[in-house]
Design brief:
alpha+beta; 8 helices; 12% strand
Length: 174
Amino acid sequence: MADFQLNKAKCVTALLFICNRLGGEWDKYSLLKILYFAEEKHLLKYGRSITGDSIIAMKHGPVPSYCLDKVKSSPQNEKYFIIDEDDVVKAQQPPNLDYLSKSDINCLEESIAENSHLNFGELKKKSHNEAYNKTVEKKGLNSTISYIEIAKGLGASRELIHYIGERIDFKEWE
């Protein structure tokens, strides 16, 4: 199964965008959930992912995989983020907005507005949705949630699911 192509620069830019919009630092869990919900919005509105990142069904809900790796403490990530002992992510630079489309920015801003005030439990409950639950049931934790399943779980039309399927060259949606 192929999904959208990962765009590493957009992953970092989206994370920097969210973090900077929230004052320059934010807890890792909430930061990744805000990005995930922006991905859902963008998929449903435009039929594509913002970052192309693989979405993994982890214990506390869906997580963009590459983005998770970028907000882990390591010397190669320190150019973009510093992560403290409380898992607070601190942006080390502004985002390069050349990497984000207007639709990307709009969905990121909508997700920030809708989700930045939610606590851990609320974000967890909201993200344990149909696509997550179906993936965990069929494939187990730490499995990839397909964008087709995400779209179906969001109530996407058959036409949109077909469009997404064509974009990711995934034919098992039928």
